[in-house]
Design brief:
Number of helices: 8
Distance between the termini: 25 Å
Strand order of the largest sheet: 1-2-3-4
Shape: globular
Number of strands: 4
Order of helices and strands: HHEHEHHHEHEH
Strand content: 5-15%
Radius of gyration: 16 Å
Length: 194
């Protein structure tokens, strides 16, 4: 997200950026959506009034799926999500598939996470809760050839989130979307007050 931070600072925005737990340069080897969300909440509480958030993948899922409470009452003027998963159970399944784990192990991972955090994994899924996210305006960009999060999940989010501005991209995959100058320009324009 460094390219986003640079582009937004160059456009005159004050930017607060951080690496979530077990991501980038942060410590830790494991994280969960609630852990990631708690880190986002801590940053939001210290940062003061927040006009907008740009979040990618797991961070986007934690920001919107929990959701994090911004500006005291939870209202956020602008929320831009990049390459966000639509289904939390599907994330567990993709992880299990990547490691060639049996379906029984994937199911146990879901059960463990649900027991640990006291809520169903589906309750974090943006296909279910997106429309409840307290953002005045929300924008979702997702690449048609995302190799990590299937494009169909973005389509499902868009179908279930009235008022969401959904803009597919082409040729950027899961990570290049964070460095693409055209996407960064869209963020600059989207974050501007009307």
């Amino acid at each position: 997200m460094g390219a986003f931070a640079q582009g937004l600072v160059a456009a005159g925005y004050r930017v607060v950026a951080f690496d979530g737990p077990a991501h980038g340069a942060s410590t830790g080897r494991r994280t969960t959506l609630p852990m990631f969300g708690a880190a986002i909440q801590a940053v939001a509480d210290q940062a003061g009034p927040i006009w907008g958030v740009v979040a990618h993948s797991f961070g986007a899922a934690a920001t919107a799926g929990l959701p994090v409470q911004f500006n005291g009452e939870g209202r956020l003027p602008r929320l831009m999500l990049l390459s966000v998963p639509g289904s939390t159970p599907a994330v567990f399944q993709r992880f299990a598939d990547l490691l060639h784990l049996p379906a029984k192990v994937a199911a146990r991972m879901v059960e463990f996470a649900e027991a640990r955090h006291g809520r169903s994994s589906e309750s974090y899924s943006l296909t279910q809760v997106g429309q409840q996210v307290p953002a005045e305006r929300a924008l979702l960009l997702h690449d048609r050839a995302d190799e990590t999060i299937p494009f169909s999940e973005a389509e499902d989010i868009a179908r279930n989130w009235p008022g969401l501005d959904f803009r597919p991209t082409t040729g950027l995959g899961h990570n290049r979307i964070m460095r693409d100058p055209a996407v960064i320009q869209q963020a600059i324009e989207f974050l501007q007050p009307e």
